[in-house]
Amino acid sequence: MRKVSNRLVKIGDAIRQELARLLQTEMRDPRVGMASVTGVEVSRDLAHADIYVTILGADAKLATEVLNNAGGFLRTLLAKSLQLRTTPKLKFHYDESVAKGRHLSALIDKALEADSHHEK
After folding, report:
1. Residue 32 backbone phi and psi in degrees, to 5
2. Mean pLDDT (the chain, rounded)
3. Which residues are CB-contacts of 26 (< 8 A; sequence separation ≥ 6)?
4. How many CB atoms lie within 10 A of CB 113?
5. Contact partners, residue 95, CB within 8 Å, separation at least 6
6. How many CB atoms neighbour CB 115 within 10 A?
7. Is 37 exposed, middle or buried (0-12, 13-18, 19+ CB in 10 A)?
8. How confident is the model at residue 2 (pLDDT cuts 50, 70, 90)?
9. How confident is the model at residue 28 (pLDDT cuts 50, 70, 90)?
10. Total H helices, total E strands in the chain
11. Contact between residue 46 and residue 86 where contact means Cβ atoms under 8 Å apart
12. pLDDT computed for residue 101 by the predictor
């Protein structure tokens, strides 16, 4: 496993913060719903960035497609706001960790409720 440099981590964090702001202020497409940027992985040559998002209030697959189609628009806005020599090409991915966490939490609650009924 390769070690990620501090520079790439800092650039990823800057992209994550700026994209989160842009998704709230600039994206007016209702198909996206409420998108939240959960992570950014930048390639070593800064040519590509994988953006992980969670989607609330919309179809995740459709919203991810819409974000990928709007990638050029968002990349242009990123280039204007961040002072980078090259702005990476953006590829959006749906992050299922929040949905899986909710599902596991519901299963735990259900098991605890069933256990309390067995004690009575």
Report:
1. -80, -30
2. 89
3. 73, 74, 77
4. 9
5. 38, 39, 52, 53, 54
6. 9
7. buried
8. low
9. confident
10. 4, 3
11. yes
12. 83
Q: Which residues of 49-70 are buried (b: 16+ CB within 10 A; e: fewer)?
A: bebbbbbeebebeebbebbeeb
Per residue in 56-90, pLDDT tens?
888 889 999 999 999 999 999 999 999 888 999 99
Q: Which two tokens stand for residue 96?
A: 């299922």
**Structural fold of domain 6-119:** GMP Synthetase; Chain A, domain 3 (3.30.300)
CA distances from 22 to 43, 109, 111 (A): 21, 36, 41
* Sheet with 34-42, edge to edge strand ranges: 34-42, 48-56, 89-94
- CA 20 – CA 53 distance, rounded (Å): 10
Name the amino acid, one letter, at 109.
D
pLDDT at residue 10 is higher than 70: yes
What's the confidence (pLDDT) of residue 38?
93
